[in-house]
Amino acid sequence: MKRTVARGMSHRYIRPMSHRSQARSHRIVAILFYKPYGVLSQFTDRTGRLTLQDFGPFPSDVYPIGRLDFDSEGLLLLTNDRFLKHRLLDPKFGHPRTYLAQVERVPSQEALRQLRDGVVLDGTPTRPAEVKLLHTEPSLHHRPVPIRFRKNVPTAWLELTIREGRNRQVRRMTAAIGHPTLRLVRVRFADLEIGAMRPGDWRVLTTEEVHSLRELASSSPPSSARRPRSRNQKPRRAP
C-alpha cells in the first residue's frame, strides 16, 4: 500500500508550566494533529493500515488523548502529559468536543431536541448536547473516499458539542434518532480549534497554549457535565 506523506509543520520541544505530579526534569509535549480519513488513532497495526506512525515524526513518548474512529477525521491531541490525559478524558470534568456531522435526511426539530436532551445508549442517556442544524455546507477538505450517496435521500450538516466520549458516540446518537452519520469531523477539542490545518498537518502547541490547556483542565467541571441517571434508576429520596 502506498503510504501518505504528511505535511508536517515546523516543530520544537516546549517546556510549559510544570505540574507537581510531573518530575521537574520532564518535558511536557503536546501536539495537535489533523487525523485524515482512513488512519488509525494508534501507532501500530498488524494489518498494514495507516497509523500515526506514518505521520510526524512524533516524539516516542507521546500518545493520543482519546481516539477518532478509522473513518472519522479531525483534531487529535497527542501528549506525554498524564495529567492532561486524565483531566481531558474523565467525563466528570465535561470538557467539550465539537463535531461536524453529515447525516442522512434533514432532522426535524423534535429529532434535534432528542439529541440536545440526550438519547439512551447502552441503557444510559447521554449528557445534554449543544446541537445546531447548519443551513450551509461547511468548508471542509476533500475526503479521498466519497460518502455513500443515494439519489433520493438528502443530507444535512449538524454541529454537535458533547461533554463525554463514549465509543462512537456521535454516530450512535444520530443513528438513534434515525439519521445515520455519513461523515464526521472533529473541529474543536477543549479550547483547541482546527483553524487552517489540513488533513495530515500537525504542530507542537506553544508554551502559552499548553499553559492555557492545563489551566482549563484544572478547572472544576460545569454542572452540565454531571452524569444523568439511567432511565430505570429511581431518584434518591430524603429520609
Could you name the CATH topology of the largest domain? Alpha-Beta Plaits
- Mean pLDDT across all amino acids: 84
Structural class per helix/strand content? alpha+beta
* CATH homologous superfamily descriptor of the largest domain: Pseudouridine synthase I, catalytic domain, N-terminal subdomain
Biggest sheet features: 9 strands, mixed
CATH class of the largest domain: Alpha Beta
Q: Quote the beta fraction.
A: 15-25%
Give me some keywords for this one.
Alpha-Beta Plaits, 239 residues, alpha+beta, disordered C terminus, two-stranded antiparallel sheet, 11 strands, 4 helices, 9-stranded mixed sheet, single chain, disordered N terminus, 2 domains
Give a structural overview:
With 239 residues, the protein is α+β, with helices and mostly antiparallel strands. It folds into two domains: 1-93 and 193-226, Alpha-Beta Plaits (2-Layer Sandwich); 96-189, 2-Layer Sandwich (Alpha-Beta Plaits). The chain has four helices and eleven strands, in the order E-E-E-H-E-H-E-E-E-E-H-E-E-E-H. The strands form two sheets. Strands 1, 2, 3, 4, 7, 8, 9, 10 and 11 form a nine-stranded mixed sheet that branches. Strands 5-6 form a two-stranded antiparallel ribbon. A hairpin with a 2-residue loop joins strand 5 (120-121) and strand 6 (124-125). Helix 1 (82-89) crosses helix 4. The longest helix is centred in the last third of the chain and has 12 residues, at 207-218.
